[in-house]
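Subject: design request, 587 residues
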């Protein structure tokens, strides 16, 4: 697998473009610090890749004035009304001034809120206000996903003095996409790129958990994705308008959609989500499963749960047809003998009040669930810690209602080298469906997959990071799958050597975050454990050098643990550093 990974089938024709890019960049993969040299040495090839990416729609670069709010920026459409412009007047939000300051000073803007709270529109208006302060025409760069963004950066694409638009930030956080190092390059002072991103509150909550204590010090332990989020100071946008926002909205009652939302918002829904027809789309889905259109509702349910299962790309039509069976009883089928997929898809993709639909059409007969419905399902399935749920109960609750047909559909269709495979496999295991693990084993036995599939160090690091994101114990997951922790540590040792040798590496941030996580979330200092024996399988100097790395990045608690391990393994020079670290922590 290349550093770009393999894109799922759902991407369609665009996968051929990225596949070509992946082949090219595998041969020239270098640290991000070498990007200028790459741009010169491979100018012809890079130009061809960038041209293909733009021609295929993988990368959009347009002047601000030519952007379509709904088509280009993926904002939720507003309800249609006779005589009204298809874009509603903007209702000023209380966070506008805060966003204006961040655009000018921080160059990193993240708006967090529930689906249909107005995140994308609010961000767009902030960009428009920012453009009025500039002496040049502002352009917006919109990559389709994280792999596209990384490919563009490596190809020397110019982001200077532009807005990088990352709507639904979680879409860009795949293993081959946006990470902490790449974000730092993009937001550097030389490029003057302003990164504008949005994220659903529920998704950020999942990615950002959790605080743990080490001694008397509170530390936020974060894997790579969570570390990236710390670069942003998120601005929260409520879907409920405050008094000043309502006052502004009432001045815009001349628009019939705003007037309708204001007259209806006291029934428990916010003005913005009413304008986007969120509650109406939700009602269509729920009533469909009760008899409105059972097959159509089942297709929507399958799309919602495939997303919740860990697959966050466009879903092929055939996958939905296969998975929807899990939402239909014999009585459902008997009640509507004339049901057919053509009519069901038409029903599921029909826009409610001219705004949004239950299923959003993609390319090549692929679909995605309206994220408002995903939020509803996730909220319904969540057990809170405050209610007494432990980690295992919380994880199980997230996926407990997903039927077996979803897991089997993913196992039958998702390539094992897809960036989503390991995540989906872990979620399936939590639900008690080891089918995806069994598929890998079967393909190994049949010779379709190399018997050393699980001996590839990069894949083991990917699995470890997937465990962290899904909050699964790394040593437990490895032992359950019969995988070698020794090989994981050998890969980490190799990566650490590359980091010291080159001063940077393709996998630097992934390596650092995983090493920090292993320090805090495993019993590495306890002799005889699997993680301790794996740490002992590499040269003892490894632990000392990890301690040095953690100390250099001011991750002192992690450095303390690694230096302690180095002392126990007989590294003499570790003692002095351990004493110094302990003094710093006690000051």
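Subject: RE: design request

Done. Sequence follows.
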């Amino acid at each position: 697998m290349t550093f770009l990974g393999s894109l799922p089938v759902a991407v369609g024709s665009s996968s051929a473009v990225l596949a070509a890019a992946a082949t090219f960049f595998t041969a020239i993969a270098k640290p991000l610090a070498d990007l200028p040299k790459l741009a010169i040495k491979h100018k012809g090839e890079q130009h061809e890749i960038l041209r293909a990416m733009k021609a295929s729609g993988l990368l959009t670069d347009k002047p601000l004035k030519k952007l379509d709010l709904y088509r280009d920026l993926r904002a939720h459409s507003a309800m249609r009304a006779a005589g009204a412009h298809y874009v509603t007047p903007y209702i000023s939000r209380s966070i506008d001034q805060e966003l204006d300051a961040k655009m000018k000073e921080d160059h990193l803007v993240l708006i967090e809120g529930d689906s249909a709270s107005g995140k994308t529109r609010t961000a767009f208006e902030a960009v428009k206000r920012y453009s009025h302060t500039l002496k040049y025409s502002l352009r917006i760069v919109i990559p389709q996903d994280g792999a596209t963004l990384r490919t563009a950066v490596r190809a020397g694409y110019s982001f200077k003095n532009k807005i990088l638009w990352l709507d639904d930030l979680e879409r860009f956080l795949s293993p081959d996409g946006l990470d902490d190092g790449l974000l730092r390059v993009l937001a550097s002072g030389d490029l003057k790129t302003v990164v504008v991103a949005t994220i659903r509150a529920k998704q950020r909550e999942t990615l950002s958990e959790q605080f743990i204590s080490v001694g008397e010090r509170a530390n936020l332990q974060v894997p790579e994705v969570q570390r990236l989020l710390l670069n942003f100071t998120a601005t929260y946008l409520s879907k409920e308008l405050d008094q000043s926002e309502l006052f502004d909205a009432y001045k815009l009652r001349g628009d019939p959609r705003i007037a309708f939302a204001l007259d209806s918002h006291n029934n428990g829904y916010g003005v913005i989500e009413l304008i986007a027809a969120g509650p109406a789309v939700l009602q269509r889905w729920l009533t469909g499963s009760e008899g409105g259109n059972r097959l159509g509702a089942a297709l929507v349910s399958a799309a919602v749960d495939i997303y919740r299962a860990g697959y966050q790309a466009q879903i092929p039509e055939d996958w939905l047809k296969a998975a929807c069976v899990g939402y239909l009883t014999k009585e459902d089928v008997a009640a509507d003998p004339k049901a057919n997929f053509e009519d069901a898809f038409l029903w599921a993709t029909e826009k409610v009040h001219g705004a949004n639909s239950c299923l959003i059409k993609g390319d090549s007969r692929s679909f995605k669930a309206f994220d408002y419905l995903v939020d509803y399902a996730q909220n319904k399935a969540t057990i809170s810690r405050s209610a007494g749920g432990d980690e295992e109960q919380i994880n199980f609750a997230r996926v407990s209602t997903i039927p077996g047909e979803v897991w089997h559909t993913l196992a039958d269709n998702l390539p094992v080298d897809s960036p989503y495979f390991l995540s989906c496999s872990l979620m399936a295991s939590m639900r008690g469906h080891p089918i995806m693990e069994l598929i890998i084993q079967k393909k190994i036995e049949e010779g379709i997959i190399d018997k050393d599939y699980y001996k590839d160090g990069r894949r083991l690091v990917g699995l470890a990071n997937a465990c962290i994101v899904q909050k699964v114990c790394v040593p437990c997951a490895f032992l359950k799958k019969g995988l070698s922790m020794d090989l994981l540590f050998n890969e980490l040792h190799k990566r650490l050597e590359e980091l010291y040798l080159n001063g940077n590496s393709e996998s630097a941030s992934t390596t650092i975050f995983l090493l920090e996580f292993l320090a805090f979330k495993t019993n590495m200092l306890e002799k005889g454990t699997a993680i301790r024996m794996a740490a002992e399988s590499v040269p003892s100097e490894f632990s000392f050098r990890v301690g040095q790395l953690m100390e250099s990045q001011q991750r002192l608690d992690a450095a303390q643990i690694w230096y302690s391990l180095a002392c126990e393994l007989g590294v003499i020079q570790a003692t002095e550093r351990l004493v110094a670290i302990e003094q710093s922590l006690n000051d």
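Residues 9-236 form a domain with the Rossmann fold fold (CATH 3.40.50).
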